[in-house]
C-alpha cells in the first residue's frame, strides 16, 4: 500500500548551534543556576536589614575592625582575569565553527590556564577576607556566594579539561565541536554572573 | 539547503521492525535492568516507586488517624507522632506527588509528541536513581527512629541546631536536595524534549494540552526548586558542626523569616507543579470521553502559562501570621485571588466541553468529575485563606489541613487515578476493570469527604494542626472519629485499586492500540509501545491527528540501525536534523550512588563535599568517555575526524 511519507534522509546529522538539544539543556541549567544566585543575592540584602553597620564590625578578637570591607586588590585582579578569559574562549568558539583543530586546542589550553589561575586567586580571596564564615550572617553569606561561584569555576575548568583531552586523543568531531561551543556559553555565564556578584560583594558595602 | 520532502512510498513495516528491534533492545538480565535508558522503563519504575511511597505515607496517615480517633489516645507517642506527620507530608510532596507527575511526563510526553526517547536518556536514568536514593534515605531515618520531626517545611528556629540537636533534620535536608536534583533533571528533560523532538508539523498551537501543562510545570520547577535546594543546603550548613554558618541564627544577624521566604518561594509554586500536570490529565481525558475537541484550546494554554507566572507571586500568603508589611500582605492577597481567574477559566472550558459533547461516564471521566467538584470546593476555601483577616483566624488549624487536602487530593490525586485508568491500557495492553474502577472511585470519593470535610469544622472550632491528642472536654471526638472512619474507607479503596491493577495486568480485556478512540499520538503506537515507540515516527497536520487525519504521514529516512530521532524547529515543528541517542550505560546509576552517598556523608562531615565532588568528576569522565562514540559520525568516513565540510549535499528541488 502506498502512503504519503516525509523523507528526511537528506537532513544533516549534527549542527553546531542552538538547534541542538544540548544547547537548550545548557541554557536551562544556566536558568537554574541564575535562579540560585538571584536567591542568594536576595538573602544577602535581606540579612543586611538586620545590621546597623554593614559590614558588621569584627569584634570577636583584637584588634577590633570597625569596617571590615573585603579588599579590592586580589578580587579585582581575579575579575579582570575571568572577564579576559572570555576572549580566548570566544576565539575557541569561532574556531569550532570553522573546525580549525589547532586553534581550538591552543585556545582551550589558554582558557583552562585562566580558569586554574582564577581558582587559585579565589582561594587567595578567601584568605584575604578579614572575617571567617562562622563570624556572623553577613560573613556566612559572603563566603557562601564566593564558594558557590568557585564551584562553577571548577566545573567549567574541569569540563574544558575533559573536552580538551578528548580533542587531543580523538580529534575534533562535530559532536564535540558543538559541546565545546556549548561549554563556551557556560563560561561566558560564569564570567558575566561574576561581574554582578563582584559589584555586590565588593562595592555595595563601601 | 538540505530539505525534507513529501513523497509517496510503500512502507515495509516488517523489515524496519527487524532492524529497529535489535537496535533498541536493552541488554538482557540484571545488566540491562541497571543500564537501561529507555524512557518507558525509567518512567514505569518512577511510577511504581512513587506508588510505594504513596502507600507508605498512607500507612503513616492511617496511624495518625487512629491516634486522633479518640481523645487522649495513646496509640502513638508524641515523638513518634511528630515523626509520622513530618514524614507523611514530606513523602506525599517530595516522593509521591511531584515525582509521579514527572514520571507520567517522562512516559507520555515522548509518545504524545511522536518521538522515540527523551532528549537526554542517561540524565533521565540518573534522575530516577537519585530520587530513589533520597526516598530510601528518608525511610532509613524513620525506621531507625531518627526520622525528621519538625514538619514538612522544617521551620527554623525549631529545625536549627539549638532546638533540634541530633541528625533528624539533616535527613530532611539531604532527602530534599536529592529529590530536587531529580526534579530539576526531569524538568530539563521534558522542556528540551518538547522543544526539539516534536513530530514534524506539530507547531506550538498543535501541542496536546497535557504536554503544554508538563512544559509549564517544568519551567516552574526550574525556577522554584533552586530555592528549596538553597534553603535546605543553608540549613544543613547552619547545623553542621565545624561549619556552623549563621544564615538563620538571629543572634548573629541571621533571620528565621528569611528561611520562610526561601521555603515558600519554592513551596507555593510546588503546589502548582503538582496541580498543573493534573489539569493536563483533565484536559486530555475530558475531550476523549465527551467525544468532541476541547473547548477553548488557546485560552486553556494561556491559562496554564499565566498560572505558571502568577504562581510565583503568592508565596507570602503562607506567612500572613508573621510580621510582613501591610502593603506586602495586600499585594499577596490580591495575587492569591487573581490566580482563581485562570483556574476558573480552565474549569469553564472543561464544563463547556462536557456540556456540548456526549459524555460517556467511564472510570477516568468519573475521577475527573470528582476532581471538578472537590477542586472547586478546595479552591473556595483557598480564596477564604487568601484574605489576611480570615487567614489569621484559622492559621495552623485543621481548616488549613482540610483546605490543602481538598486541593491536593481533590486537585491532583483524583485526576491522577483517572489518568492511570486512562493510560493503563497503553502501558500494559490491557484494560483495568470498569466495575472495580467505579467501586474504587465511589469509595475514594466518599471516604475522602468523610475524612476531610469534618476537618473544616474542627479547624473552625479551634483544633490546631500537629497536636498528637486532645482532651475529652474539647468536644472534638465525634468528628475526629468520623474522619478516621473516612480514612479507613479511603484505604480500602486504594487496596481495591491495587487489586484491580494486579488482576487486570494479567487477565484484563485486551485493549488494542486505541481503546478509547482518543485523538493524540500515543494511541498511534501499539499497546504496550515497543522500545522505539514508533516503527515510522508520525508527522501531524492538525491538533487532534487521530481524529482529523485518515492516515498519518510517516517519517522515513532515519537510520534504523542506530537509536535515531528527528529533531524539529521550536515554533513550527519543521524537520531540522537527525539526533542520535546515547547507548545504555551503567554510569548514571554509579553517579547517583556517588551523589547520594556524598550527601549522606555530608550529614556527618563537611569533607564529604570536596571528596564526593572529586569522585563525581571521575565518574563523570567515565560517563562522558564510555559509549560516547557518535556512531552516525564514524560511519561517515574518516573515523572520528571531522570532514572539511559537514557531509551534506544540497537538495535539488
Description:
The complex is a heterodimer of chains A (206) and B (653). In chain A, 70% of the residues lie in helices and 3% in strands. Chain A has 206 residues and is an all-alpha fold. The radius of gyration of chain A is 22 Å and the shape is elongated. The termini of chain A are far apart. The relative contact order of chain A is 0.17. The model of chain A has no long low-confidence stretch (mean pLDDT 94). Chain B has 653 residues and is mainly alpha-helical. In chain B, helix 18 packs antiparallel against helix 19 (608-625). Chain B is globular. Chains A and B meet through strand 1, helix 1, helix 5 and helix 6 of A and strand 1, helix 6, helix 7, helix 8 and strand 3 of B. Strand 1 (2-7) of chain A pairs antiparallel with strand 1 (5-10) of chain B.
Report a brief summary of the structure:
By secondary structure, chain A is an all-alpha fold. Chain A contains 6 helices and 1 strand; from the N terminus they run E-H-H-H-H-H-H. Strand 1 of chain A pairs parallel with strand 3 of chain B, so a sheet runs across the interface.
Amino acid at each position: 500500500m502506498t502512503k504519503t511519507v516525509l523523507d528526511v534522509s537528506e537532513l544533516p546529522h549534527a549542527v553546531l548551534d542552538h538547534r541542538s538539544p544540548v544547547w537548550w539543556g545548557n541554557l536551562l541549567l544556566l536558568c537554574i543556576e541564575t535562579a540560585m544566585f538571584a536567591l542568594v543575592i536576595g538573602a544577602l540584602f535581606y540579612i543586611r536589614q538586620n545590621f546597623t553597620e554593614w559590614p558588621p564590625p569584627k569584634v570577636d578578637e583584637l584588634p577590633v575592625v570597625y569596617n571590615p570591607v573585603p579588599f579590592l586588590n586580589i578580587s579585582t585582579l581575579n575579575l579582570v582575569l575571568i572577564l579576559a578569559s572570555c576572549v580566548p574562549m570566544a576565539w575557541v568558539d569561532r574556531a569550532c565553527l570553522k573546525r580549525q583543530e589547532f586553534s581550538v586546542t591552543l585556545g582551550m589550553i589558554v582558557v583552562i590556564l585562566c580558569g586554574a589561575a582564577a581558582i587559585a586567586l579565589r582561594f587567595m580571596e578567601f584568605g584575604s577576607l578579614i572575617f571567617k564564615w562562622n563570624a556572623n550572617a553577613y560573613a556566612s553569606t559572603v563566603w557562601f556566594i564566593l564558594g558557590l561561584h568557585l564551584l562553577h569555576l571548577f566545573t567549567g575548568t574541569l569540563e574544558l579539561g575533559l573536552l580538551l583531552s578528548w580533542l587531543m586523543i580523538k580529534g575534533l568531531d562535530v559532536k564535540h565541536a558543538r559541546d565545546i561551543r556549548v561549554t563556551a556559553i557556560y563560561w561566558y555565564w560564569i564570567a558575566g554572573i561574576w561581574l554582578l556578584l563582584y559589584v555586590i560583594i565588593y562595592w555595595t558595602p563601601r | 539547503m538540505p530539505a525534507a520532502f513529501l513523497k509517496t512510498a510503500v512502507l515495509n513495516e516488517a523489515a524496519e521492525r527487524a532492524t529497529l528491534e535489535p537496535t533498541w533492545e536493552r541488554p538482557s538480565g540484571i545488566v540491562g535492568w541497571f543500564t537501561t535508558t529507555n524512557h518507558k522503563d525509567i518512567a514505569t519504575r518512577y511510577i511504581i516507586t512513587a506508588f510505594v511511597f504513596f502507600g507508605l505515607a498512607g500507612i503513616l496517615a492511617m496511624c495518625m488517624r487512629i491516634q486522633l480517633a479518640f481523645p487522649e489516645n495513646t496509640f502513638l507517642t508524641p515523638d513518634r507522632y511528630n515523626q509520622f506527620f513530618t514524614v507523611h507530608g514530606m513523602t506525599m510532596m517530595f516522593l509521591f506527588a511531584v515525582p509521579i507527575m514527572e514520571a507520567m511526563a517522562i512516559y507520555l510526553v515522548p509518545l504524545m509528541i511522536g518521538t522515540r526517547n527523551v532528549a537526554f536518556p542517561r540524565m533521565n536514568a540518573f534522575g530516577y536513581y537519585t530520587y530513589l536514593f533520597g526516598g530510601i534515605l528518608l525511610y532509613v531515618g524513620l525506621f531507625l527512629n531518627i526520622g525528621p520531626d519538625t514538619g514538612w517545611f522544617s521551620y527554623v528556629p525549631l529545625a536549627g541546631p539549638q532546638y533540634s540537636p541530633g541528625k533528624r533534620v539533616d535527613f530532611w535536608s539531604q532527602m530534599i536536595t536529592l529529590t530536587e536534583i531529580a526534579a530539576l533533571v526531569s524538568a530539563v528533560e521534558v522542556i528540551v524534549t518538547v522543544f526539539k523532538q516534536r513530530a514534524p508539523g506539530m507547531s506550538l498551537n498543535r501541542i496536546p494540552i497535557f504536554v503544554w501543562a508538563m512544559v509549564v510545570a517544568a519551567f516552574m520547577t526550574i525556577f522554584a526548586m533552586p530555592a528549596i535546594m538553597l534553603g535546605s543546603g543553608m540549613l544543613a550548613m547552619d547545623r553542621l558542626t565545624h561549619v556552623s554558618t549563621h544564615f538563620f541564627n538571629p543572634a548573629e544577624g541571621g533571620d528565621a523569616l528569611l528561611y520562610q521566604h526561601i521555603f515558600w518561594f519554592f513551596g507555593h509554586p510546588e503546589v502548582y507543579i503538582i496541580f498543573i500536570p493534573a489539569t493536563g490529565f483533565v484536559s486530555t481525558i475530558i475531550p476523549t470521553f465527551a467525544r468532541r475537541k476541547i473547548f477553548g484550546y488557546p485560552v486553556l494554554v494561556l491559562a496554564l502559562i499565566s498560572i505558571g507566572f502568577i504562581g510565583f507571586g503568592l508565596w507570602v500568603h503562607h506567612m500572613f501570621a508573621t510580621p510582613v508589611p501591610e502593603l506586602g500582605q495586600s499585594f499577596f492577597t490580591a495575587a492569591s485571588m487573581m490566580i482563581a481567574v485562570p483556574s476558573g477559566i480552565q474549569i469553564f472550558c472543561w464544563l463547556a466541553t462536557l456540556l456540548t459533547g456526549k459524555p460517556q461516564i467511564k472510570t477516568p471521566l468519573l475521577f475527573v468529575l470528582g476532581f471538578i467538584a472537590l477542586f472547586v470546593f478546595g479552591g473556595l476555601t483557598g480564596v477564604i485563606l487568601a484574605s489576611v483577616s480570615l487567614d489569621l483566624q484559622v492559621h495552623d488549624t485543621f481548616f488549613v489541613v482540610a483546605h490543602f487536602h481538598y486541593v491536593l487530593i481533590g486537585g491532583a490525586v483524583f485526576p491522577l487515578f483517572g489518568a492511570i485508568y486512562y493510560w493503563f491500557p497503553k502501558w500494559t495492553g490491557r484494560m483495568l476493570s470498569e466495575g472495580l474502577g467505579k467501586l474504587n472511585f465511589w469509595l475514594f470519593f466518599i471516604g475522602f469527604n468523610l475524612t476531610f470535610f469534618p476537618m473544616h469544622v474542627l479547624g473552625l472550632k479551634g483544633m490546631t494542626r500537629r497536636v498528637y491528642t486532645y482532651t475529652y472536654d474539647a468536644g472534638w471526638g465525634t468528628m475526629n472519629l468520623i474522619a478516621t472512619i473516612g480514612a479507613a474507607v479511603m484505604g480500602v479503596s486504594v487496596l481495591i485499586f491495587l487489586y484491580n491493577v494486579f488482576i487486570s495486568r494479567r487477565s484484563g480485556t485486551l485493549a488494542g492500540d486505541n481503546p478509547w478512540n482518543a485523538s493524540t499520538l500515543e494511541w498511534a503506537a501499539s499497546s504496550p509501545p515497543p522500545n522505539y515507540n514508533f516503527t515510522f515516527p508520525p508527522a501531524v497536520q492538525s491538533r487532534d491527528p487521530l481524529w482529523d487525519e485518515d492516515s498519518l504521514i510517516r517519517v522515513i529516512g532515519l537510520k534504523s540501525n542506530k537509536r535515531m530521532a528527528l529533531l524539529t524547529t521550536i515554533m513550527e515543528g519543521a524537520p531540522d536534523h537527525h539526533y542520535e541517542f546515547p547507548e545504555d550505560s551503567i554510569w548514571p546509576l554509579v553517579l547517583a550512588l556517588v551523589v547520594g552517598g556524598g550527601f549522606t556523608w555530608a550529614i556527618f562531615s563537611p569533607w564529604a563535599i570536596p571528596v564526593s565532588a572529586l569522585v563525581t568528576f571521575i565518574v563523570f569522565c567515565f560517563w562522558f568517555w564510555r559509549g560516547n562514540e557518535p556512531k552516525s559520525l564514524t560511519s561517515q568516513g574518516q573515523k572520528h575526524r571531522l570532514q572539511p565540510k559537514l557531509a551534506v549535499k544540497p537538495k535539488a528541488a
